[in-house]
């Protein structure tokens, strides 16, 4: 079994990288600081007080945290992550559903953390030359935005690759940050076309380094360490004397966020991990394929970084339900309707934190709660990858498609049909054999197409504890390298 995240030191290049970083006055945060901002130096916090959340400034590396204060300028940190509890008046179930918000990361999505954990190991080990290499970020949207942003902060050149039919907000912003933006055919369900473009770049350019979120285990590690810990802090604050953790429900974009589920299972062994996907493209559920509209999730393959053997359930979400919930919580008439149903002003003020994939995650939690008949003592965790800020053009498109302004009647229909009315169909509790069926699908993408090692594929399954356990223990090792790198930069 090869090194899961290669931290081999290239001393000759590392000396050059240290000097390059020194010139740009860059300090790199550790995972420990992302989990606990109290560990961040006061000198850094003073600079943050004068810096905008999305500013292309290296100091914003220290805003790769779930705990940023929910402001656009000069914020520091909360004691707990930004989150919203979805009340029964919206969900229709008794279970307590907690959704952490990605809106207040730089770029407005948590993928900035996953991309950090893919690039930084190569940078601090001397494997990536910021003056020669170009970091390639293949994605269905948010990951390439995070990758391009981190590249800019770390003084690295970047190439963003994403499907041409993703929301225009993504493209407009990317053009201001990435060195090059490449649009591939299709939409969020056309992942192979993104991979094909990376192979074309490999064959035609000598200086590209591909950071594929679906295959880079740093993605999983960051979510295990940082997102999982953030969820745990919310649970400890909210659980009460009778509470219990039922599980975590997350759609499989790159499957990186599912690493947080591994962390929660380590803390609460009775908890379950449920993975959601689009009903219109039921790859995990039915070896299927198709087109869907849940922007920000990938499909038609099983990500290399998905720990399938630790997954308990698959939940398919109709993308029409996701769009219905997204519109309900983000249109003024929808919010007025929910207010009439008894939803508090505190919750309504946070509903714009919900993007399209966030809506799908909430619906996964609702189906999970219905299936297991959860009570008011049960906690279900999820995340809101991004917010409505990324999809204002989609709201306008839906209004044009339907030919009328969103009304109270539309809101009542969307709530009753797309939220309260969803059933426990298109779900599957996984057994040993059904988990193995899903795991086996990795072969066709990763061994046949992407030239990964079949021995590593087998290690993920047959040497399960060694493979995933070793990965989950790499956080402190990475932090040690980051600390050593920063020390060399400061002494250079």
Automatic annotation (TrEMBL):
User: What domain of life does the native source organism fall in?
Assistant: Bacteria
* Signal peptide as annotated in the record: none
User: Is Cell inner membrane found in the keyword set?
Assistant: no
Q: Which InterPro entries match?
A: Cys_Synth/Cystath_Beta-Synth (IPR050214), TrpB-like_PALP (IPR001926), TrpB-like_PALP_sf (IPR036052)
Gene3D superfamilies per record = 3.40.50.1100
Which Pfam family, just one, is annotated for this protein?
PALP
Give the Tryptophan synthase beta chain-like PALP domain ranges: 95-385
- What keywords does the record list, in alphabetical order? Pyridoxal phosphate
In which organism is this protein found? Desulfosporosinus youngiae DSM 17734
Q: Which cofactor does it need?
A: pyridoxal 5'-phosphate
GO aspect biological process, one term: alpha-amino acid metabolic process
* Protein name as catalogued: Cysteine synthase
């Amino acid at each position: 079994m090869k090194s899961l995240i290669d931290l081999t030191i290239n001393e000759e290049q590392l000396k050059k990288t240290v000097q390059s970083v020194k010139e740009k006055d860059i300090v790199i945060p550790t995972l420990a600081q992302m989990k606990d901002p109290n560990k961040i130096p006061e000198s850094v916090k003073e600079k943050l007080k004068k810096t905008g959340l999305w500013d292309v400034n290296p100091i914003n590396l220290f805003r790769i945290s779930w705990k940023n204060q929910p402001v656009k300028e000069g914020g520091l940190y909360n004691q707990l992550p930004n989150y919203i509890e979805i009340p029964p008046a919206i969900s229709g179930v008794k279970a307590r559903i907690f959704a952490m918000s990605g809106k207040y990361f730089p770029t407005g999505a948590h993928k900035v953390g996953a991309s950090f954990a893919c690039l930084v190991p190569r940078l601090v080990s001397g494997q990536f030359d910021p003056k020669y290499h170009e970091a390639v970020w293949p994605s269905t949207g948010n990951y390439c935005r995070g990758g391009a942003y981190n590249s800019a902060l770390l003084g690295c050149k970047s190439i963003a690759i994403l499907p041409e039919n993703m929301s225009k907000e993504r493209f407009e912003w990317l053009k201001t940050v990435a060195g090059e933006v490449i649009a591939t055919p299709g939409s969020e369900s056309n992942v192979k076309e993104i991979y094909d473009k990376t192979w074309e770049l490999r064959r035609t350019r000598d200086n590209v380094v591909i950071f594929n979120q679906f295959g880079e285990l740093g993605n999983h590690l960051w979510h295990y360490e940082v997102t999982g810990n953030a969820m745990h802090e919310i649970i400890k604050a909210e659980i009460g004397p009778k509470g219990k953790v039922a599980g975590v429900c997350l759609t499989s974009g790159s499957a990186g966020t599912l690493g947080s589920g591994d962390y929660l299972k380590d803390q609460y062994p009775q908890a379950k991990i449920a993975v959601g996907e689009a009903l219109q493209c039921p790859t995990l559920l039915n070896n299927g394929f198709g087109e869907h509209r849940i922007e920000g999730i990938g499909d038609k393959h099983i990500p290399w970084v998905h720990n399938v053997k630790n997954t308990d359930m698959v939940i398919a979400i109709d993308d029409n339900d996701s769009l219905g919930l997204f519109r309900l919580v983000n249109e003024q008439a929808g919010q007025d309707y929910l207010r009439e149903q008894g939803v508090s002003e505190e919750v309504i003020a946070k509903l714009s934190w919900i993007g399209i994939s966030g809506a799908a995650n909430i619906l996964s939690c609702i189906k999970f709660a219905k299936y297991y008949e959860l009570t008011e003592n049960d906690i279900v965790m999820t995340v809101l990858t991004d917010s409505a800020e990324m999809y204002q053009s989609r709201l306008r498109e839906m209004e044009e498609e339907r030919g009328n302004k969103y009304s109270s009647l539309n809101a009542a229909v969307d709530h009753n049909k797309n939220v309260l009315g969803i059933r426990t169909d298109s779900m599957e509790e996984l057994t040993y054999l059904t988990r193995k069926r899903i795991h086996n699908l990795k072969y066709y993408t990763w061994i046949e197409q992407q030239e990964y090692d079949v021995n590593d594929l087998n290690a993920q399954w047959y040497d399960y504890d060694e493979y995933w356990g070793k990965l989950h223990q790499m956080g402190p090792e990475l932090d040690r390298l980051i600390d050593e790198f920063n020390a060399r930069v400061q002494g250079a």
